[in-house]
Amino acid sequence: MTDAQQTAEAATGVVTPEPSGPAPVPLLAPREGVPPVTADVEALGAVVEAFAAGRGPVAVDAERASGYRYGQRAYLVQLRREGAGTALIDPVACPDLSALGRVLADEEWVLHAATQDLPCLRDIGMLPTRLFDTELAGRLAGFARVGLGVMVETVLGFSLEKGHSAVDWSSRPLPEPWLRYAALDVELLVDLRNALEDELARQGKLEWAIEEFAAIVAAPPPPPRKDPWRRTSGVHKVRRRRQLAVVRELWTARDQVARKRDLSPGKVLSDVAIIAAAQASPHDWRTLATLHGFGHRMGRRQLQHWQSAVDRAKALPEAELPQPGQPASGPPPPRAWAEKDPAAAARLSAARSAVTSRAEELSLPQENLLAPDVVRRLCWEPPEEPAPDAVAEALRGLGAREWQITQTAGPLATALRAGAEGA
Known about the structure:
By secondary structure, the protein is α/β, with parallel strands linked by helices. It has helices at about 5-10, 40-50, 100-105, 115-125, 135-140, 150-155, 175-185, 190-205, 205-220, 240-260, 265-270, 270-280, 285-290, 300-315, 335-340, 340-360, 365-370, 370-380, 390-395, 400-420; strands spanning about 25, 35-40, 55-65, 75-80, 85-90, 110, 130-135, 160. A hairpin with a 2-residue loop joins strand 4 and strand 5.
């Protein structure tokens, strides 16, 4: 039994099975029960005071309404801290949590898959200066499956309810079973953090994890995506520029409606419908109505709205039509390397093999050892003399962390030389 299992057992009163025993013990309710939802300024003030007086790391989670609402805003924020208990906060009723963020600013925050929740937390005034990501820690420690439920079962011996992860968290009032599920998501997060810290230290990887966590905290918000309409599912089937213009116009029209109605764009018009309209380029709304995704449930006014977008694309002058594909800011797709630059293709093959072998030796995913894009860019424009020091400097310029450079610069230098000799 791990120290974390003993801690959790003592706190909850639930006996943890030994690894060789039966299935994990279901964790059915938070140890202090489900707290009321904080939904006004007075209640929020009490939460801020309680968490400021608490001790140790703060478990943090957020629930969004992906697939139901426009954007990625938080609809429930869960926190837990020793001495403060668990809090469930409604960020719709309390949209400014900066006071809570300030009192916790110097504490370590524990999140699972931090990069998913940090954008919506930032929007409501909460941003950590230190964090521990239990999903990323699990990857670095070599766990094959790193979902929160699986990690809690594997590491702590408890099973969490899994039934409400994809519900519409924008619903009000939130049902009690959903709130119980949300509270349980932070119930053992600090215990999981402690166990994973011990495991990473045992494997000699704790400093690596600390570097990764610091990089997450320091990362700026991502810039707006260029040409987001190009991510429409199935757009690769659209070849002609005029048809691509239809995709762009329909995507833009859909986005405007979705934003105005606060709905997930897919609930307004499916990607399948957009691609069907682009390929068919219908002449009027009646023809549009026969296409997949524009069925009998869509009224005439809606059909005319979408047809207007199609018509705008068909009326564009040639000079304003989008080009196929996106202008590349880096190396071309690897499938084209053999033709464009056989030597680079040989380097990439050798480098990929080197990273894969090293990742297997270290028992961690190769994409966590070194990002595939970093490997591609290094192989496309390698140092003039691929000695380990030169490769290390190149990796540093591409954003690799120091622990990654230490583990890969030597093997990559060897691979770059071997690739050059074999080309």
